[in-house]
Specification:
heterodimer, A: about 210 residues, mainly alpha, Four Helix Bundle (Hemerythrin (Met), subunit A), 7 helices, about 75% helix, B: about 90 residues, about 85% helix
């Protein structure tokens, strides 16, 4: 198989110098700054929903506790492990491209992409079970929050998978290097945000009572 | 493979294992059906550790300015604090 690995970069000093040469200074956010505006905006939107969920629950604890018991904690926990592992794969992918290993980077990101697919599949099964049971957003306040929060997050996972797919294709064609990998870091930051938000969503909606 | 690369990979693997263990802990508390103030605060504390570990070590914010790390920590303290407040209100 043809590879696109460039000459590996071995020292952090050289790496640091290269970051500066690409317009990056020590202490800057990884990737494109624009993605961070988006990430902070998304975190704010989810944060408002998380808090709204908690205060709505305070008004009707019994309803929320009873409804919460109908959720599959196992599915939620497996999906958390899946996302954490996919984030770890993305970290390894970024580490690989920082050393100029483009093909290795593509492999790690493909692993993350596939785990994203596992997350989506489990979530679809979960949604399907709820819809089969006749549960909709108008069933009660708990399900309104559960469905809107998890579906909103689900859409972000899909968006993250599209971003990862674009990066994988470019990486496989040698589009990134040790000197130029801001695109990989940008996509990685988005994927980690998806993980970060699920880490809060899972205990809040599935566990804490 | 360079030593620094091995160390970096080993470190990220340890971080992943930590997140894995904390997730299993969260799940176990849920499965045990433990509820109440102490359980809620413990679960939020675990969630805060996980979220900050992801922000600092996976997103790479530990190498950035204090401002960015502060935003991520502040986010969790505000959101997590309000969640805790709402749950405390429900316990009364």
């Amino acid at each position: 198989m043809k590879t696109h690995d460039t000459i590996p970069v071995t020292t952090s000093v050289v790496q640091s110098d290269m970051d500066v040469s690409m317009g990056k200074n020590e202490g800057d956010l990884p990737g494109d700054f624009a993605i961070w505006i988006f990430i902070f905006a998304e975190m704010l939107a989810f944060g408002v929903l998380f808090v709204a969920y908690a205060f709505s629950r305070a008004k009707n604890v019994e309803l929320f506790n009873v409804s919460q018991l109908t959720l599959s904690r196992t599915s939620g926990a497996i999906n958390t492990l899946v996302l954490i592992t996919s984030s770890y794969f993305v970290v390894r992918g970024v580490a690989a491209i920082k050393r100029g290993f483009s093909t290795q980077c593509a492999y790690w990101l493909t692993g993350a992409f596939l785990l994203g697919g596992v997350f989506v599949s489990i979530k679809l099964v979960e949604f399907n079970a709820k819809f089969d049971a006749g549960i909709t957003m108008s069933t009660n306040d708990f399900y309104m929050f559960y469905l809107s929060l998890t579906f909103f997050h689900f859409m972000h996972v899909l968006m993250g998978m599209v971003i990862l797919a674009c990066i994988i294709v470019k990486a496989r064609h040698g589009g990134y290097s040790a000197q130029d990998h801001a695109g990989v870091e940008t996509g990685a930051s988005f994927w980690h945000m998806v993980d970060f938000l699920w880490i809060i969503l899972f205990p809040l909606v599935y566990i804490i009572r | 493979m360079q030593n620094s690369q091995l160390q970096s990979n080993l470190f990220s693997t340890i971080i992943w294992l930590l997140l894995f263990v904390l997730t299993v802990t969260t799940f176990s508390i849920g499965e045990a059906g433990i509820s109440g103030k102490a359980a809620m605060l413990a679960l939020l504390a675990i969630t805060m550790i996980k979220s900050q570990v992801v922000a600092n070590y996976f997103m790479g914010l530990r190498k950035t300015r204090l401002l960015w790390r502060g935003i991520m920590l502040g986010y969790f303290l505000i959101v997590g604090g309000l969640i805790a407040l709402a749950y405390m209100m429900a316990l009364k």
